[in-house]
What does this fold into?
Amino acid sequence: MRDVKEKKKIGLTGKIFIGLILGAVTGVVFHYLIPSSYVRDTVFVEGIFYVIGQGFLRLMQMLVVPLVFCSLVCGSSAIGDTATLGKVGVKTLAFYLATTAIAITLAIGVGHLINPGMGLDVSNIETSEVAIAESTSFADTLLNIIPKNPIGALANGEMLPIILFAIIVGIILAKLGSKVETVSNFFAQFNDVMMEMTTMVMYVAPVGVFCLIARTFAGIGFSAFLPLLKYMLAVLLALALHCFGTYMLMLKGFTGLNPVRFIQKFFPVMAFAFSTATSNATIPLSVDTLEHKMGVSRKISSFTVPLGATINMDGTAIMQGVAVVFASQAYGIHLGLSGYLTVIATATLASIGTAGVPGVGLITLSMVFTSVGLPVEAIALIMGIDRILDMTRTAVNITGDAVCTTIVAKQNGALNKDVFYKKEAK
It folds into this structure.
């Protein structure tokens, strides 16, 4: 029975990847081979593709808050001991903040290697309207973690307050034990309901992914990339180095696990994150893959993965680092060592509490630009091509969450190596 279930699961991830490839091909065909018309633009691209793709995204987002809340309550109550929970939390936070700082430092280095803004004629690049983010002080960022109204935080999908409230509820349930058995059972059973709902929604994932990707590629021609090709290459190179270099070295160093096997097993989740461009929507699939393919205990992953989707934005930090170098070179503004140190600090702090939704990195980028006196108008230059980069950096973000989760699980004796090295059924 278990083998049949695993085969179905592997079949589904395969279908998601096929949907991604077919969607990209369909989008390119629509853009280059089918002339603009009412049928192409209104019926298909902004009609069928848009409605089905966004409908699927909404189904995934519908799951996130109740699933994260219930899994965190169950996870923190299962860990039980507050000292152990504290150790897991400290290790997770340290990993996320350290890798974010490494990511943006790496991005600045790659930016100076490729020089994406050097000699660029900014007048030839199509610009878009820029949304400006309000700067939040570090003190307010910390205070915003504590919800004034937990129900309001749940209703608005404010992840950090939800995480804190869920952990507190879980700790209290563990402390009171049999006195609150009914409440504990409710959360455990409701968590099972949400996991079953996730399974149901995932059956339509291949179609949803196909429509999301087809619409993206139908709207973006390769000609839009040419003026900013060096910028794109710099971002993609830094993302690749961080994902397959920094993360895999840390995985090997802290756990001794085979990085190639890790990538093979986690690749379908990366492809799914790429197609949806949202860390939050990937939480259910990520937790499920870590448990059934990596051997990571759900009580660890149900804590670290939602937290990572909220505060671990390494891909976004990389984009911001390269964008700073690009803007400073394009506008001829020199940033010294102190300027770049300010960028590293600002981008690392800006990633805390950033919503795991498409395009949010560009909004927080305005805070980073303002901190070192770069013109916010420069963001408009890169907005046209950011969708593809946004998809790629989301894949990097969720890979970092998974690597952190695996490392923390190994250090807490919650990793089954037999499951990790088990060959998957064909």
In short: The longest helix spans residues 38-79. Confidence is low (pLDDT under 50) at residues 4-10, 126-133. The radius of gyration is 22 Å. The chain is about 75% helix and 0% strand.
